[in-house]
Backbone:
C-alpha cells in the first residue's frame, strides 16, 4: 500500500515478537535464493530434523504491474498457488489475493487488505466446503491502535487488541477466547543497535498457565548480530547471525533448559543461506 496507517490486526504486537522469535531455528537447514534475468525469483530450502528431511521450492514473478504470482511446492506434494493483485490505481491501499492449495486437504481462499491513514481492514473468504468469512478491522490515531478480529464472523471467536506506539517503543495487549487468553508485550529501541522486548502470556481455563519471556537483539556490526531470550520456564535461547560472504549468511542457534541441565542435552541449529 502507498499510504501509512495503524497497521493490520496481525501486525499489532508484532515488533516485540520479531525481537523474541526472529532468526531462531533448531534444525539443520540450507537455503538458496536466486533471481533470473527475466525477474523470476526462486527460493529453495532443505531442512533436517527429528522428523526427517523435508524441502520446499518457491517461485515468484510479476505477471503485470498490478499482479504478482507466487507458487510453493514441498516434498509432501503440497502445492500452493497465489495471485496477489494491487488495486491502488482504483482504490489506494487495496490489495486482493487469490490462493489455491492442492493437497490431501486442498482449499481455495480469497484475501483482501485495505490500508487507510487511520483505518485498516483485512479478511479471508475460505471457499472450501461451506464458505466461511473471517475479518478484522483496526482504527488508529496519534500512536494508539484498537483492533477487533472475528474468525468465521463468530462472536465467540472474536479477539481484541490495543497498541500504543511511541517514538522508540511499542506496547500492546491482545485478548482472545473471551478474555481467557491474554498476551501483553513491550519492545523498546535502546539505540540504533540494541532492542529489548518482553512478552507475558496468561492462559486461563483447562490449560491455565502464565509465561513471561524477556529478550534482546543486538547488531554487533554491519555483518553480525545476535539475539538472546529466557522465559520463566527456564528455557534460555541464543542465536548468532554472521555474513560469511556478500551472498552467504550463517545463523547458529542454541537452546538449553536451565532446570534440566543434568539430564537434557542442549538443542542446536544451523542455517546457511546463499542469496545469489
Residues:
Amino acid at each position: 500500500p502507498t499510504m501509512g496507517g495503524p497497521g493490520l490486526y496481525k501486525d499489532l504486537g508484532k515488533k516485540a515478537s520479531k525481537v523474541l522469535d526472529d532468526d531462531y531455528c533448531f534444525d539443520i537447514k540450507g537455503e538458496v535464493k536466486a533471481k533470473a534475468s527475466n525477474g523470476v525469483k526462486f527460493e529453495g530450502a532443505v531442512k533436517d530434523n527429528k522428523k526427517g528431511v523435508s524441502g520446499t521450492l518457491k517461485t515468484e514473478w510479476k505477471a503485470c504491474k498490478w499482479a504478482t504470482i507466487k507458487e510453493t511446492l514441498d516434498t509432501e506434494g503440497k502445492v500452493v498457488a497465489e495471485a496477489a493483485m494491487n488495486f491502488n490505481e482504483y482504490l489506494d491501499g487495496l490489495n486482493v489475493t487469490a490462493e489455491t492449495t492442492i493437497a490431501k486437504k486442498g482449499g481455495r481462499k480469497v484475501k483482501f487488505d485495505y490500508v487507510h491513514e487511520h483505518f485498516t481492514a483485512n479478511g479471508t473468504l475460505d471457499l472450501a466446503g461451506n464458505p466461511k468469512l473471517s475479518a478484522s478491522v483496526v482504527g488508529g490515531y496519534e500512536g494508539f491502535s484498537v483492533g477487533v478480529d472475528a474468525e468465521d464472523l463468530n462472536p465467540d471467536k472474536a479477539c481484541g487488541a490495543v497498541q500504543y506506539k511511541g517514538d522508540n517503543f511499542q506496547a500492546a495487549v491482545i485478548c482472545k477466547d473471551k478474555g481467557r487468553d491474554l498476551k501483553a508485550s513491550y519492545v523498546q529501541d535502546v539505540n540504533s543497535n540494541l532492542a529489548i522486548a518482553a512478552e507475558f502470556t496468561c492462559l486461563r481455563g483447562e490449560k491455565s498457565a502464565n509465561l513471561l519471556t524477556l529478550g534482546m537483539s543486538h547488531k554487533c556490526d554491519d555483518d553480525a548480530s545476535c539475539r538472546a531470550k529466557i522465559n520463566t520456564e527456564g528455557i534460555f535461547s541464543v542465536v548468532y547471525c554472521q555474513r560469511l560472504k556478500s551472498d552467504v549468511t550463517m545463523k547458529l542457534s542454541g537452546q538449553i533448559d536451565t532446570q534440566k541441565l543434568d539430564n537434557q542435552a542442549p538443542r542446536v541449529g544451523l542455517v546457511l543461506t546463499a542469496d545469489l
Notes: The chain has a mean pLDDT of 93. DSSP finds one helix and 19 strands in the chain. The CA atoms of residues 106 and 141 lie 40 Å apart. The longest helix spans residues 14-21.
